[in-house]
Amino acid sequence: MVSLAGKIWRTGLATEAIGADSGAVSSVARAIEARTRELLGRSLAIREVDAGSCNGCEIEITALSNPVYDCERFGIRLVASPRHADMLLVTGPVTRNMEVPLRKTWEATPEPKLVVAVGDCARTCGVFKGSYAIAGSVDQVIPVDVFIDGCPPEPEEILRGILQALDRLRPHR
Ligand code: SF4
After folding, report:
1. 3-class SS at 80?
2. Which domains does the chain have, with CATH numbers?
């Protein structure tokens, strides 16, 4: 125990400091919170669908919930079921195996639903283009509201894409 405490003391902080732009991330997340309350009167529920990504985009999406970004404090929640979701975040080129599940997920999401395609692969199939295993880009399988470019896009860009998609909805009240 004493040696462990000594090692922690000698090592010091091993993580990077939060970037100077963390305030910009918070301001986009706050804008999403305000827009969601205006449109839905509650928090935003997002179902993430990996349609065939390399998981690089998932790492960035998962970062939205980590202690640095902590987007749940702004009412941005990842949910397990499309039936509870307002928005789908879809990553990767759509593989042949995921073509039907992606379409069924979209059909199971209640209206008004939004689809945000995350990453270059979602728009163009990226490095996987031409593979025998690929059915196509996300918009070749389901309607897409917003594309977010990048390989992978950073959390701030993902939040900006979410906000852009929300701007396509009209208030229901
Ligand atoms: S856009 Fe890049 S990080 Fe995202 S799934 Fe494609 S190769 Fe991976």
Report:
1. coil
2. 20-166 (3.40.50.12280)
